[in-house]
Amino acid sequence: MARRLRALSGIKPTGTPHLGNYFGMIQPAIALQDSHDAYYFVADYHALTTGRDPAVLRRASHEITATFLALGLDPSRAVFFRQSDVPEVLELSWHLACVTNMGLLLRAHAYKAAEQESRANELSTGTFFYPVLMAADILAYDSDVVPVGRDQLQHVEMAQDMAGHFNAAYGSKALRRPEPLVRAEVPTIPGTDERKMSKSYGNTIDIFLKDEKAFLKVAKGIKTDSKGVDEPKDPDTSAIYTLYRLVATPAQADEMAAAYRAGGYGYGHAKEALGRAFEAHFGAARDRYYDLLKRPADLEDVLAKGASNARSVARDVLGRVRERVGLQALPK
Ligand code: TRP
User: Residue 146: which domain range?
Assistant: First the structure.
């Protein structure tokens, strides 16, 4: 049988996952477990570039794990693990760093944005190195496709470049070239202020709000223009409609779009429909999520099994790399 393509992605355990994370990465990644050999991980090494609280990091890693399981990740088919349980990626990142010039890293959007906010002298070298570690994550598992949100596209392209540099130096088949997978049909997810949903804007909506009332409350807080109830409205420029279309059925979405255009349908009505649709879409998963969080030992079991699978793949790849560059085989 032909080898299934391998999908790999990671998510940082910093803060509660929000709808931007969900539609950009979590949902498409979980969907791929049916057709792909799926490897997903909690990027806890990466979280250390910004977080300094050990208790928060441990807790957030469990939250991400519970999020994936609650939303349908099946650990009997997909490999789910914690990045730091496979320390081999750190060694691979060194091999990549040694074939990667500063220029490549200086072009990273994320680095440039960080540099806008503080002086380069004061940024941690971990922040600068971030894309190299991410490339190692991807290349350590011979990944074919990397489902990511648009904001991570450049990082995956940098991983392609690093694989190319390594292969140019040490032989064409040393590292597998990955392809990014960004879902074209998913719009930019608007936040509560209608700008792109992003933690740094403080406009996010959590995936697992407590109950329908909580969803209604955030829906009510979404900014709109000042059109009155009677006026016709354009669904395509409305954050409420954009979000609704993602969580409602197609028939419900068409109905809202028609009501917008006809007039006599206010933003207040649309917000109520959105709150209810959020609850219908996420309510059952939310209950599973809180239940899973009460069973940390079960979460650790999933992570341990995932790590053992992932680690054996990464050790094979790293073994190949060590041989190419002229190091001894990995110690047992
Ligand atoms: N940088 C990614 C983010 O912030 C997380 C990540 C780390 C990742 N390693 C990865 C994503 C490897 C895909 C593949 O969302």
Answer: 6-188+295-325
CATH of the domain at 21: 3.40.50.620
- Distance (Å, whole) CA 214 – CA 181: 33
The pLDDT tens digits of the residues spanning 75-130 come to 999 999 999 999 999 999 999 999 999 999 999 998 898 888 888 788 899 999 99
Which atom of ligand 1 is nearest to 43's Cα?
7
Q: How far is the CA of 303 from the centre of ligand 1 (A)?
A: 18
pLDDT in the model for residue 149: 86
Where does the chain show beta strands of DSSP type E?
A: 6-11, 37-42, 79-82, 145-147, 179-181
Centre of ligand 1 to C-alpha 152, Å, is: 7
- Whether residue 79 is found in the same domain as residue 215: no
CATH code for the domain in which residue 232 is found? 1.10.240.10
